Each structure stands twice: as C-alpha cells, then as structure tokens.
Amino acid sequence: MFKTIHKLVWAFDAEWVPDPQAGRLLHHLPEETPDIEVMRAMWQQGGATEENPQPYLKTIVCRLVSIAAVQRLQLPDGRVTLSLLSLPRDPHAEQHEKELIQRFLGAIGERKPQLVGYNSMAADLRILTQRAICHGIQAAGFAHRPAKPWEGVDYFAKGGDWHIDLKEYAAPGWGQGTPSLHELAVLSGIPGKMETSGEEVPQMWLDGQLDQIVRYNERDALTTYLVWLRMAHFAGLLTAEQYPLEQQRTRELILKEAVAKPHLLDYLAAWETLSPAIRPPAD
C-alpha cells in the first residue's frame, strides 16, 4: 500500500478517442475519409467483434480530449483546500491536443504534485507520454528521473510515492479478478459510472459534445479522489476522525463547483444515496 500523502495531491483522469489522423496515416486511408469510417477501420484492425465492436486500442493511436483532476493542497498552517481542475477550460472553443498535453505536463513539472490515478501507469500516464513525444513536446520537469529513488520526484517508478496507481494496490497484476474503478467505487459507497460510459465518448466527440465529455471526466476524477481517500483510510494515513472530514470537504467542493457546473449536483445526489460512503468506516 502507498505510504504517504503529499502536501499537494492531484487525483486525475483523462479521456481519449481514436485519432482519425493516426488512422489515416497508419492504414493508408484517403484524407477525405470521414472520421467515423476511420475509427471503424481502426477498431476493425484492433480486433473488433460483434460482442466488442470498440476494442481497446493502443494509446499511441488515440487522441487526448479531456483531463480532469481534484487538487488537494495542505497549506503551511495545516488547513486543506480542494479544487476541481479541468482541461480544456473552454470546451466550446477550438481544441488542440498538443496544447492540452503541454498545459497539463507543464503544470506537473512546475508544481510537482503527487499524482493519483486508476490504471494510470498502464493507461493515462502512458498516453500522455506517448502523445507528447508524437507532438514533439518537451516536458523535462515531468519526465526527469533521479539517480536514486529518494533523491527527487519520479513519476515513472512503480511502487513510488509520486505516482499512486490505485489499481496496482487494489489488485496487483491483471486478470478477471481485477476490479474496475466503477466496481471498486460503487461497492465502497462512491458513485461510479452514471449516465455515460467510456464507450460513448468517441461518438460524443464526433458529435461535438466535448462539454459532455469534460463533465464525464470531472465525475471520474471525483470518483478517483474519493476512492483514494478510502484507500488512504484503509492504509492508516487518515484516521477514523479525519476520513469523514475529508469526505465533507469533498461535498463542499462539489457544492461550490456546482454553482457554475450544475451537473455535479447529480453526482452528489448519487453519492448521498450510497449510505456507506456517508458513514465513516468502522475501526
């Protein structure tokens, strides 16, 4: 289990779709081929079946469209503040994947948060790195690795404390026994997937519904954060008294953000129907 809670924590989640331009280049498709046809060709090459028409594709051939994070900052006086961060900031403006990645990795390199994700070592961190390389981005602050683990920040060290992949602690390895974030969350009294699932994101992107993708992304970031809190309590990093206080801070964050983002009220309502999350775990 992870060992520490840093002063600055980002519990993050990213959303991506098959990149039509990558599909055209790799599968020698004409430039005028519609995006949806390119995506179908990519899924077909990726092993699509009637039961699974949208198989998981290599992250290198996918395009990042949204990143969201819950930021937990412990101030020098001990107070804790929470923020909900999301990119793109304006989902209605023209979006460039390169700018999205540069902003996120640049902020990580500058601020050095403790990253928390779910399957982030194999997925989120992988696509961020691969697509940054494809775009020719330099992210030295993010990519730097110390000569020895205790000599500095290292986001790529398995089992390190700078990047906590919750999946690796909830279910080391792979296989049918590995829970999804949705399963782990719901059975812990935390909302998982609601009206949207990951399979719907490509069509939402094709339909120009980036704002809906960002909303979905923000909810997943909240879920990741709440699962992290629960696992931190399990590990003894939060006491039985601290854990409900941290949950209450999260409720207050949701209510504050819901003034401009009313969709978060649905998330809060779903959470409040799951009574085990409202009661602190028994010692």
Summarize model confidence as the mean pLDDT: 93
Gyration radius (Cα, Å) is 19 Å
Determine the CATH superfamily: Ribonuclease H-like superfamily/Ribonuclease H
Shape, principal axes of CA atoms:
globular
Distance N to C terminus: 18 Å
**Could you name the ranges where pLDDT drops below 50 across 5 or more consecutive residues?**
none
Structure description:
- There is one protein chain.
- The protein has helices spanning 20-26, 35-45, 97-111, 124-134, 140-143, 166-170, 181-186, 201-206, 210-234, 242-257, 263-273, 275-278; strands at residues 8-18, 62-74, 80-87, 114-117, 163-165.
- The longest helix is centred in the last third of the chain and has 25 residues, at 210-234.
- It has a five-stranded mixed sheet with strand order 3-2-1-4-5, with helices on both faces.
- It has a single domain (8-278), classed as Ribonuclease H-like superfamily/Ribonuclease H (Nucleotidyltransferase, domain 5), CATH 3.30.420.10.
- The chain starts with 7 loop residues before the first strand and ends in a 5-residue tail after the last helix.
- The chain is of the alpha/beta class and 283 residues long.
